[in-house]
Amino acid sequence: MSILVLADHAAGALQPSTARVVAAARQMGGDVVLLVAGQNCAAVAREASAIDGVARVLLADADALAHQLPEQLAALIVELAPGYDAILGSAGLVAKRCLPRVAALLDVMQVSEIIAVLAPDTFRRPTYAGNAIETVQSTDPKRVVTVRTTAFAPAGAGASAPIETISPGPSGDTRSSFVGRSSTGSDRIELGSARRVVSGGRGLGSRESFDKLVYPLADKLQAAVGASRAAVDAGYVPSDCQVGQTGKVVAPELYLALGISGAIQHLAGMQDSKVIVAINKDPDAPIFSIADYGLAQDLFEAVPELIAKIG
Amino acid sequence: MKALVGVKWVLDFSVKVRLKSDGTGADLAGARMSMNPFDEIALEQAIRLKESGAVDEIIVVSVGPRPAADILRRALAMGADRAVLVRSDAPVEPLGVAKALKSLVERDGASLVLLGKQAIDDDNNQTGQMLAALLGWPQATYAAELLVEGDVATVICESDDGLETVRLTLPAVVTADLRLNTPRHISLPNIMKAKNKPLEEIAPETLNVDLRPRLRVLRTDEPAKRRAGVMVASVDELLDRLRGEAKVI
What we know:
The complex is a heterodimer of chains A (311) and B (249).
Chain A: E1 2-6, E2 9-10, E3 13-14, H1 17-28, E4 31-38, H2 42-48, E5 54-61, H3 70-80, E6 86-90, H4 93-105, E7 110-114, E8 116-119, E9 122-127, E10 132-138, E11 143-147, E12 163-165, E13 176-183, E14 196-200, H5 207-221, E15 224-227, H6 229-233, E16 254-258, H7 264-267, E17 275-279, E18 293-295, H8 299-309
Parallel strand pairs in A: 1-4, 1-6, 4-5, 5-12, 6-11, 7-11, 14-15, 14-16, 16-17, 17-18
Antiparallel strand pairs in A: 2-3, 8-9, 9-10
Chain B: E1 2-6, E2 9-11, E3 33-35, H1 37-51, E4 57-64, H2 69-78, E5 82-87, H3 94-108, E6 112-116, H4 127-135, E7 139-149, E8 152-159, E9 162-169, E10 172-176, H5 188-194, E11 199-202, E12 215-221, E13 230-232, H6 235-244
Parallel strand pairs in B: 1-4, 1-6, 4-5, 5-11, 6-10, 7-10
Antiparallel strand pairs in B: 2-3, 7-8, 8-9
């Protein structure tokens, strides 16, 4: 069996999610081949070739792939598909907007966001905001799968797979063009892979409070900053901080929920965290039902005290 | 320009799903069902495009069982012009839905398709992308803003670390994310007017579409339960436990 894994990369660096997708692929069995597609990504290919269990790295480096737009990327993967039994990607932006196109063009169903591999054709995946876990078996001759990377420990590094340069695929479809990008451009720890997360909700009440309480606490704990939908909608933080069913799904060692009530959709994004702490002045807030440690106190008192007392 | 909007009949977002104890799936008997929230946002965007003159007709489509007609009537009351129910009593998958929508896009001549980015029941996040591929059209997913001028759509999309802007030459498929808009409430006059708008029910065979699922769902289980937590009385106690017991600080 042969599996093609779409590598995640940005700004010239391989993303940590890739090693976790490789781990999932290895559980399916067979040869794992990594596809690094983009522009000026030879360094990414070198990083990728060090992942344990990778048989080969394919490097498709071209201007047409500069922004990894889904139409171009899907066309390339479909061209490669005949050599593979399965095509895997993470649940990050590039893969999730591209792989369903691949699946449709191959006339197969995609299995989205797997959290476990039971057999090469059988997986577990979350539905209903993580409240119903389905065990699904693909009946298609080829599988297209995206991986919820928080559910897989990363494959190690230290290998040295050969890198093969390939063509970037059929020439670009100009009906879709990249205009620009705005990152919230943080030097902050990346939310998706952070070991600790401090998350703020509507209870913070303002952007200023976020700045005065959430960010400093996150800094003290060397944590990433997350937020509930309510906090994002109210403008306290940018949208890429949102944790939830349709935001980021995280599973850090420590998740601190401040002023977050705990709606179903928020829990979906963090209920697999190892240790959950909730601070909310409402003792009946649903978040307390999944918190390991709950403090029913006004966060405007508790958080400054916490910041002062952490070493 | 005609716009086609896909809407799905799903368990209401405020309801926590109940599962059958034999592992055969969700127990939806008597449960409150609604239009998938992201599809409602997609529909609202189509209506705004019609109000601004960019779109002249909105066809709203659902693939589902007969009760799904409820959300189609709601869509007509919000401002869609006509509705189509592709009747399927068995569960459907994105691949099948994409094929049905493609068939209707071609039948009715739509140049813009708007869908929610994912359904809140199966959380697949595939249908829009699949439809775009089957039609050979460009796509923009996770739209936070959409501007249509002539045959060009400029879409600001949510990305992993901020926003990304793409420009599409129509025809195209756009999927809606949470902050694209806030859907309007429905007025009573509109509910009355909607009763006269066409709602067509058709069988998938009429569209030459095979909706049979490719994934076999073997079991549906609850997630592993977390052990019960404790309430702490103070910040001091919290820190004690985080350092001593949990060892995460």
